[in-house]
Design goal:
1 helix; mainly alpha; about 0% strand; about 100% helix
Length: about 90
């Protein structure tokens, strides 16, 4: 009877431990999957933010170039006018 009772306790302990290990394994697996999804989402968000920043940077650079060209034209016209006035006064 003692052997039967000890065997039953041993089998129950093994079964309980086995179930607990499976639950822990499932929890670990879920945690890993969640971490992988979060990492993937973070990488995608960072890529989108970088793309937007690059587009904004290109647009700002284009505007700055356009303004610089316009200012250069205006400066050239001012120099032309100044030269014209200087040469008109000498005559």
């Amino acid at each position: 009877m003692k052997k039967l009772l000890l065997s039953a306790v041993l089998v129950s302990a093994i079964a309980f431990t086995s179930c607990r290990d499976e639950k822990k394994a499932e929890e670990v697996e879920d945690t890993i999957e969640n971490a992988a999804e979060a990492t993937s989402d973070a990488v995608e968000n960072a890529a989108e933010d970088t793309e937007e920043a690059a587009k904004d940077g290109f647009e700002a650079t284009g505007k700055a170039i356009d303004e610089a060209v316009e200012e250069t034209k205006e400066a050239g016209e001012s120099v032309k006018d100044a030269v014209k006035e200087a040469t008109d006064d000498d005559n």
